Amino acid sequence: MVADKIRDEIDQLRVAEVAPGQAALAISLAETFDDTDAPTSRAVVARELAATMKILRALAPVGEEGDAVDDLAARRAKRRGA
Asked: What does pTM read for this prediction?
């Protein structure tokens, strides 16, 4: 459930090598979220998980994939036959 999605995102961000403790914390929080049914507990865990993921996203290395500007430039070049 949530833990699986968090693991997938951590893998995609490639931050486990950069911040292994934060990555492990995020996974642990996600597992706790999945395992609890108490609404108050889930809210607290969700808030902490969101904060931890924000840190991990900020630490993520810049990807080699292009951004929206690169995509627009590629489409423009294709239209112009370049």
From this structure: 0.75
Coil, helix or strand at residue 1: coil
Instruction: Report, as an integer, the average pLDDT of 57-69.
Output: 74
Contact 60, 15 (CB under 8 A): yes
Per DSSP, which regions of the chain are E strands? none
- Rounded to whole angstroms, the Cα distance separating 70 from 31 reads 37
Phi/psi region, residue 4 (left: phi>0; alpha: psi -120 to 50; beta: rest), is alpha
Q: Which residues contact 49 (CB under 8 A, 6 or more apart)?
A: 2, 6, 26, 29, 30, 33
